[in-house]
Amino acid sequence: MIDLSAQSWFSDTEWLAVPDLVEKTGMSVSRVRRLFDDHALVGAKVAGALRTPSVFLDVDGQPRSDLRGTITVLHDNGFSDEETLDWLMSTEESLATSPIEALRAGRKAEVRRVAQGLL
């Protein structure tokens, strides 16, 4: 298990708990929880509650459509939720930025190609 709070990006991140996601997405609590189960979002326990970084939502407040497939690739490679979060948020040398920033810049194919090469 990774101590996410020890990562350089952790304190600079806005974390959203399930009630925050309900408010931002307009979805029910059960639907928001299903987003985590279906790997549309990935989260971790932060301050005792399941939370996800706000950058995992698009400008309309919905889960980023390009995130689910990337999370699936990482999980298929054996990454835990914490490892997935850390990889998405940390600078990836081959991308010259964090994978989430590369996704936000429209570089989905490149991010997934790099993710598929991880073991």
Give a short summary of the structure.
The protein has 119 residues and is mainly α.
SSE blueprint:
Layout: E1 15-17, H1 18-25, H2 29-37, E2 44-46, E3 49-53, H3 67-76, H4 81-89, H5 99-104, H6 108-116
Antiparallel strand pairs: 1-3, 2-3
The pLDDT mean sits at 93
User: Which bin fits the share of residues in helices?
Assistant: 40-55%
Structural category is mainly alpha
* Uncertain stretches: none
Q: H/E order of the elements?
A: EHHEEHHHH
N-to-C span: 17 Å
| DSSP strand tally | 3
Strand content: 5-15%
Rounded to an integer in angstroms, the radius of gyration calculated over CA atoms is 13 Å
Mind describing the biggest β-sheet?
A: 3 strands, antiparallel
**Number of helical runs?**
6
Q: Major sheet: order of its strands?
A: 1-3-2
Into how many domains do the coordinates divide?
1
Shape: globular
Could you please describe the fold and organization of this structure?
The structure is a single chain. With 119 residues, the protein is mainly α. It has one domain. Helix content is 43%, strand content 9%. It has six helices and three strands. The protein has helices spanning 18-25, 29-37, 67-76, 81-89, 99-104, 108-116; strands at residues 15-17, 44-46, 49-53. Strands 1-3-2 form a three-stranded antiparallel sheet. The protein is globular and about 35 Å long. The model has no long low-confidence stretch (mean pLDDT 93).
